[in-house]
Predict the structure.
Amino acid sequence: MLTRRQFLLAGYGSLLGAMAGLSGCAHSAGKMSSASMAPGLPHKGMGVFGSLSLKAHAERNGLLYGCAVRPELFSQDAKYTRLIIDQCDILVAENAMKWLALRPAFNSYYFNEADALLAFAEQHQMKLRGHNLVWHEQLPKWFASMVNRDNAREVLVQHIQTVAGRYSGRIHSWDVVNEAIWIPDGRADGLRKSPWLSLLGDDYIELAFRTAREADPTALLTYNDYGIEEDSQENEQKRSAVLLLLRRLKARNVPIDAVGIQSHLTANPNASFRGDGLRRFISSARDLGLQVFVTEMDVADGALPGDVGTRDDAVAALYRDYLNVVLANPAVTAVLTWGITDRYTWLQTNKPRKDGMHVRPLPFDEEYRAKPAFIALRRTFDDRQADASTQGADGSAANPYAPFTPNPTRARE
Ligand code: G3I
């Protein structure tokens, strides 16, 4: 009987070995040694560029791959910029299109970074997601003192008209409402007691979507949330509440086109991902006529031991197990990771490791070398084609998630 780690290595070994030998990959067959770590970007022909990039594999299988970016880094870090150009066909601003970034004062807007990001995306034939128009977090300081029940509706509508209107026709999809469900707040409908809910009541969601459609008739309007990915009871409750909201919106003919599953995951050394609830959730979203995007994927490694090889394998295994479930449904059309290199991940600040080592949640390491997570992403994109075409019309998996079987043809890539 193979252990989980041996199982993985059987799949990744030959390709990783080849890549590491050519210095394009962070470590060989899951083991990292300083001797195998060559500095700098992998070079062309070393297994991660062109037809071997994430975007090429995604496109071949009817998907978009991309990541969250910090546009301020484009002028500071050429390797980061190059990596994004090489790997992505869709981008999203990690922070630059949030209220806090766009609204320095009640009566003014700051668009420099957001404009530059859209220009960059268009220059490199990439799509851009908008994130986000309505959220309870990252509101500017002036918000609490300046917005009240009398003007909240006008403030919300004006913001959406101005921001979504400015980029109308040039945005792939907008996260119109972000994270509106929060079960611990105790409401029967699961809605979060956010400033918007207090100011406008539960109609604020519908208002936001209708205003966004008017401002940008072509962007895919998306509801985006987290805590709906895992097998736990809490996540199941949240999935039910999100579905209730989506059904309510659809029943009222609110213009909504997609649901975003953020997918901030945590590698658990003691349990594997099954995803039955998530599979049902995606199937239900598809029944509602919605597309599904994986909008913010990363895999936190704080619960794993320090050894880099062990960590990278476990992180890659969760990428693989998770995406195998998600991508089996053809309603899923885009996968974005929240960042692309471990160097700039938000998790280093927000969920640092107790042992002080740098976290490793993304497909490329701090030195921009491809990791096992990169291989897992690519392979699940490839496996997708067969899976998606063999499932039932209701999205239920006729080809349900099965244990990983190394594919001998893939090892020759
Ligand atoms: O820009 C300031 C900088 O001037 C200052 O020196 C520094 C000191 O702390 O803070 C900087 O702002 C930080 C900002 O990220 C930019 O780095 C904020 O403190 C920090 O709170 C902010 O965190 C972001 C967080 O959203 C809150 O907006 C993370 O980068 C970003 O990754 C995270 O993204 C969210 C998604 O929008 C929604 N889903 C969850 C996801 C992760 O939390």
Summary: Strands lie at 64-69, 90-93, 127-134, 173-178, 220-225, 258-261, 264-266, 291-300, 332-337. The chain has 14 helices and nine strands.
